[in-house]
């Protein structure tokens, strides 16, 4: 900035802008490592239906849980993007139901849906949904890195109609999927090892899949009733 512009703008204004920028960076740094609730049990603030400016009415709040009551709500997506994080929540799937938790989602109109870009941790009625028997070695079962890696313990999941506690950790190119207190999948979340997994999956020709190190988190509308509660996240 030359002297003329400096004088016109004013030293006080410049200092204020610098202070604002520094405070913003400090606030972001302070949020890291702290648990933040993504659902207060009363409102869907901080969420929207995929490529919409609102939450569609098929997503409801019942008994302090987010519930997809019927098909047509589109995937429920966070307003904010996350890179490295630890996410905890509880989910309950209906009999014969299917859903998923998708991360690093790129919300762009050239993509049909969150699963076009974001890897998915499966939510399923393993007993009665046919997808449980699809894929390879169980990589469509609950807790799996969908179509890429199966859970190491297929007994960790609770049956349809019961609450399951899930945890997803993404940090430094590594990921973990936990189910009811058991770590069921260790997986790469970036780099050549993830590329190998993608190359051996249904996503191998999908442009944009798994490429982003940051993105939104989505709860999938697969057409079946599903409930989510006690949702919180910690940026790492």
From TrEMBL:
Region of interest (Disordered), residue spans: 126-145
Pfam families, per database record: 3keto-disac_hyd (PF06439)
Record key words, sorted: Signal
InterPro entries in UniProt: AL/BT2_dom (IPR010496)
Signal sequence, start to end: 1-29
Record's keyword annotation contains Signal: yes
Coiled coil: none
GO molecular function terms noted in the UniProt entry: hydrolase activity
Domain 3-keto-alpha-glucoside-1,2-lyase/3-keto-2-hydroxy-glucal hydratase: 34-234
Domain of life of the source: Bacteria
Protein name (record): DUF1080 domain-containing protein
Organism: Dyadobacter pollutisoli
């Amino acid at each position: 900035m030359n002297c003329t512009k400096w004088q016109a703008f004013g030293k006080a204004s410049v200092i204020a802008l610098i202070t604002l920028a520094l405070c913003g960076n400090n606030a972001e740094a302070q949020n890291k490592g702290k648990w933040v609730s993504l659902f207060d049990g009363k409102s869907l603030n901080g969420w929207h239906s995929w490529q919409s400016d609102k939450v569609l009415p098929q997503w409801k709040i019942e008994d302090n849980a987010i519930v997809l009551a019927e098909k047509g709500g589109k995937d429920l997506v966070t307003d904010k993007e996350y890179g490295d994080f630890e996410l905890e929540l509880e989910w309950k799937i209906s009999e014969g139901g299917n859903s998923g938790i998708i991360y690093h989602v790129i919300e762009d109109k050239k993509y049909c849906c969150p699963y076009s870009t974001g890897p998915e941790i499966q939510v399923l009625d393993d007993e009665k949904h046919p997808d449980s028997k699809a894929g390879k070695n169980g990589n469509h079962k609950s807790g799996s890195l969908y179509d890429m890696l199966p859970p190491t313990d297929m007994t960790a999941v609770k049956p349809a109609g019961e609450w399951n506690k899930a945890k997803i950790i993404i940090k430094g190119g590594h990921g973990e999927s936990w189910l009811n207190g058991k770590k069921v999948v260790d997986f790469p979340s970036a780099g050549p090892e993830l590329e190998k997994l993608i190359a051996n999956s249904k996503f191998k020709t999908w442009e944009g899949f798994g490429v982003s190190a940051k993105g939104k988190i989505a709860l999938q509308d697969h057409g079946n009733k599903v409930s989510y509660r006690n949702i919180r996240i910690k940026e790492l």
